């Protein structure tokens, strides 16, 4: 990490950061969180702690004439012994909303995760620097989107011209919650996750609470969303409840009602869209839990398998088919008294025909091309005229 001479150092402050619910001051700088401390204190799950600290949708938003931008960060990279190496976290640079550069940061901490036991080992490392040059020499909005899948501490920001926060543009704020698919799973970069793609097409400000492995109807997540300013809200429910084998049908319906009730406490009239699961052959009719597939690992790739028995549906075990039917029923019931509540069938975003063309590489997660397709479809279905998130007529 070597600072270039003659650059201006700008303190990293909350007004320069978009998409985080909280910023924690660390020994190195600022750590963006996508759940507040009050929520984090109510769950000791390491998976949740990892997911919420990965800054999917979080970006620096700067107004500047700078042609050179340097950012020091301390990433935490993951390593899974026995599994293929994970790609480096990617930073996307946008100028006035258009892609202008992409970079990675070498070094950083390493989190070693045993896929069999879940045991972890933290190996400390040093911050690194990414450098963008050749930016247009004019006043402009610059965004640096942080890696969606790599915990990132912000250490220092340097430019060759002064920096201020981007002024408000009057854009609507879209607050979204979902699973690892919403988090970004195998998207190519942070602006390539399907929520980021849809937000860009729709011209809205994204707050992405996609939490890998952790879209579990947790009350603390609902309260965090209740207390977050937003104009548009969506919740994608299903896949994690099945692959975690977390609850039975008897608990699922009331839990959905409770989650939506909490959202409505803070956002009584905002358009609220409930999205059911995308197509996933693994769990369409087979309950969880989901497990790593040892045969796939032996072949040098990461894959998953369902370990439940389809016959267990009779005892209330959840599958994606069951969840789609129940979510549709719940939204129809509630919409009689809530004219701003909507339902979107996840099969309209990614269905059986899509899977035949673009299969899920590991059985659970879409690849980069599929993220873009899902984002395009969500934008067309939700934000287009006649959709639940369409702008109000003037």
Relevant terms:
alpha+beta, single chain, 6-stranded antiparallel sheet
Describe the structure.
The chain has helices at residues 37-40, 46-53, 180-183, 194-202, 219-226, 239-243, 249-266, 294-298, 320-335, 352-357, 368-383; strands at 8-10, 17-18, 22-25, 30-33, 59-64, 69-79, 91-95, 98-103, 109-113, 120-123, 128-132, 140-145, 151-159, 163-165, 173-178, 205-210, 232-236, 272-275, 290-292, 304-306, 341-344. α7 (249-266) crosses α9 (320-335). 25% of the residues lie in helices and 26% in strands. By secondary structure, it is of the alpha+beta class. It is globular. The longest helix has 18 residues, at 249-266. The strands form five sheets. Strands 1, 6, 9, 10, 11 and 13 form a six-stranded mixed beta sheet that branches. Strands 2, 5, 7, 8, 12 and 14 form a six-stranded antiparallel beta sheet that branches. A five-stranded parallel beta sheet has the order 16-15-17-18-21, with helices on both faces. The chain contains eleven helices and 21 strands.
Measure the end-to-end span.
51 Å
Helix/strand/pairing category: alpha+beta
Radius of gyration, in angstroms, nearest whole number:
21 Å
Shape: globular
Uncertain segments: none
Largest sheet: 6 strands, mixed
* Proportion in β-strands: 25-35%
Number of helices: 11
Overall strand count: 21
Residue-averaged pLDDT: 95
Estimate percent helicity.
25-40%
Concise synopsis of the structure shown:
With 394 residues, this protein is α+β, with helices and mostly antiparallel strands. The chain has helices at 37-40, 46-53, 180-183, 194-202, 219-226, 239-243, 249-266, 294-298, 320-335, 352-357, 368-383; strands at 8-10, 17-18, 22-25, 30-33, 59-64, 69-79, 91-95, 98-103, 109-113, 120-123, 128-132, 140-145, 151-159, 163-165, 173-178, 205-210, 232-236, 272-275, 290-292, 304-306, 341-344. The strands form five sheets. Strands 1, 6, 9, 10, 11 and 13 form a six-stranded mixed sheet that branches.
